[in-house]
Amino acid sequence: MDELDLLKKDWKKQDASYPELSYNEIYKLIHKKSSSIVKWIFIICIVELLFWSGLNLLVPEKYLEIYDKFNLRTFLYVTQVIHYSIVFIFIYLFYKNYKAISVTETTNLLMQKIIKTRKTVNYYVYYNIALYVLLSVIVNFIMFSNPETMIEALNPNNKINVSGAKFLNIMLIAQIIALVVIIGLLWIYYRIIYGILLKRLNRNYKELETLEF
Amino acid sequence: MNKELEHKFISEFQEHQKIIHKVCRIYTNNQEAHNDLFQEITIQLWKAYPKFRGDSKLSTWMYRIGLNTAITLYRKSKRTIKTQDFDTVLHRIKSTDYDNTEEEQLKLMYKAIHQLSDIDKGLIFLYLEDKNYKEISETLGISEVNARVKMNRIKTRLKTILNP
Q1: Most buried residue among A62, A89, A210, B142 by CB atoms closer than 10 A?
Q2: What ipTM does this complex have?
């Protein structure tokens, strides 16, 4: 007999040996909580959406006063209005993609839709990072163009006893270090998210994709 | 969700639950993992049930959700990742049914199946369930030709394992 026929025969034979769950056991099962990756992705995406859109609110009003000295308030206000409109578009797209995920699709399409949903949020994070980098470059450029105003605003009455030039250097280095640290943390975070949650999904999706091309 | 629907679902599910056990059999290799996956598939079926229109057979619908959950949605918990002895899975087969070589062959084949990729497991599962290539391609979302090519590759692979 062919080996595969043998396997098939054995497979059919096993039918009788599977446990039969009772009505009550099934009832209990359907009231348990799902731990599917779609659920996890949803939670993580919501946290990310809230985190990035809430980041601005974490900055105390006092720190914003410095921007008045550079006449940057209106500029920042306008960018915020644009920013939140874009955030809104992202949330809408995320919701739309998330809702489209259906477990009754073909395996291929289901994976595509999950990846699409996740990508929306990835683009959202990239957008935020790009915006923060861009804004800091603009703001820094303006601030460093007026070094006297900046030293006066950040180090009033020369509280920290350093020369102006040295102070500017410290400011610049501190900002670069902060940027590197933040990007490093983000990189680790995404390695973890993708490592744990999406590695298997991506691998399976790739396998189906390579098959189709 | 209303009680009537719940009752209808449980009754129908009870009747077809073997399908889900079989999916778990292919994708897991110990009892704990089996139960874990079984639970997740059951929850997914119940969540999707209100939208089930009956335009396809309930069993077809269950095959699809079962495989989608196993391949895509299910997150193996830590405790289920540990490898287990494959022999324990085969304890059911009585030695009177098969001679020693056949039993040995089956053991090797199940072991080989457990080492296949998630997608390949899905294909071999549908093959063992006597699904035709049309159904296989419609479940996984690949073309019929590719399903056939891939299946032949798996079959050859399984055979070479037995006849090196």
Answers
A1: B142
A2: 0.82
